[in-house]
Specification:
Length: 82
């Protein structure tokens, strides 16, 4: 197991109370609750940033196809009208 690193953060009093309440309710430490929350936040945001970066690479490629906004709306309307 890796040695844990210490990190100091400032949070609003309400956030602290919520962390403490969740730790009590789940019988976990505050550190555990905070670590889990950070891991979930990082997972979602890293996934989103990677998706954006991948889309930018794709958009910059020579194979990229761009459609006019009005054309997309017209195609959608036609599909819905069927």
């Amino acid at each position: 197991m890796l040695k844990a690193a210490s990190l100091t953060v400032r949070v609003k009093p309400d956030t602290r109370s919520r962390i403490e309440a969740l730790a009590r309710a789940t019988r976990r430490s505050k550190s555990f609750v905070i670590e889990e929350a950070l891991e979930q936040y990082l997972d979602v945001n890293e996934w989103q940033i990677k998706g954006i970066q991948d889309a930018l690479v794709e958009a910059d490629s020579h194979e990229a196809i761009f459609l006019d906004h009005d054309e997309v709306l017209a195609q959608r309307e036609a599909k819905l009208a069927r």
